[in-house]
Design a protein that fits this description.
Order of helices and strands: EEEEHHHEHEHE
Strand order of the largest sheet: 4-1-7-5-6
Helix content: 25-40%
Structural class: alpha+beta
Number of strands: 7
Bound molecules: magnesium ion
Radius of gyration: 15 Å
Amino acid sequence: MTSPFRVGLGYDLHRLEEGRPLVLGGVTIPYAFGLAGHSDADVLAHAVTDAILGAVNLGNIGVLFPDTDPANKDLDSMIFLREAMKRLGEAGYALVNVDTVIVAQRPKLNPYTARMAARLAAEMGLPEDAVSVKPKTNEHMGPEGRGEAISAQAVVLVQRAADG
Ligand code: MG
């Protein structure tokens, strides 16, 4: 890895299921449905984690934390994110900024995006203005638009660390 800058892209989607907690960006949002998954199914944290790993070509969240491993059951996804940050540092890179999109028809997420960005920034050791979270509906189309799922996309920029 010779470039001083690299970018990473992450995407994830989880099904909505009645009675599960809805956790997005480490923030629990009051809603009758939550995301189904082996971990806490925080689709936004998963997309960001994959973007970080992708930036330094270190695989993906499913390889690092297989959903066949009982140890990962209902796990706080911030643990995945912190592990990706550790590996990013070991690869000699530091995170510059993170931009994300959450696609959800419901619930309305605008009241929560600042808290999600603050939580993600704190976990990644970034200033709050280096993390952006933008909610979109899907015009009632597709699995997100029909309220069957929530998906998230993330891009990150990383910079070679001065001492890396
Ligand atoms: Mg996932």
